[in-house]
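pasting input
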Amino acid sequence: HAEARYRAIVDTAVDAIVVIDRVGTLHGFNRAAERIFGYAAEEVMGRNVSMLMPDPDRSAHDGYLKRYHRTGERRIIGIGREVTGQRKDGSVFPLELSVAEWKADGEVRFTGIVRDITARKTAEEALLAAK
Ligand code: HEM
């Protein structure tokens, strides 16, 4: 069954998989997202994705979505970006974000894949400091 296969893939993914609608309301939060951000899925469903990031992006993210709907200009979708996330305990961490857009029954949805790159960043900084 396609739905069961889809769930198995999403639940076993190492990266966080987060689904939002056109205004940023959370509709999907896989197991890895629970581990990486420290929230249970039921705590975040129906809330704004901006809760997963610190300011200034937290206050600006609704505007980023509006700008995209107005202009159609992609700045992260299909490109990716290193940004900063915020966990439930308030700690911040570097992440690599990829975003894809799709439609469910005519409704716009965005799926974000979030990779915690704390280890990679620490290694990069250690290499730079050793130079
Ligand atoms: C746009 C930050 C998570 C969907 C943006 C932009 C920033 C940003 C800075 C604007 C880029 C620009 O205008 O130059 C963040 C941060 C996140 C995060 C810090 C940390 C958790 C997500 C997630 C999704 C998402 C999980 C989807 C599920 C979008 C979309 C846009 C956007 C659809 C507008 C389209 C685009 O610019 O290509 N975000 N975001 N974001 N973000 Fe996020």
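fyi The mean pLDDT is 96.
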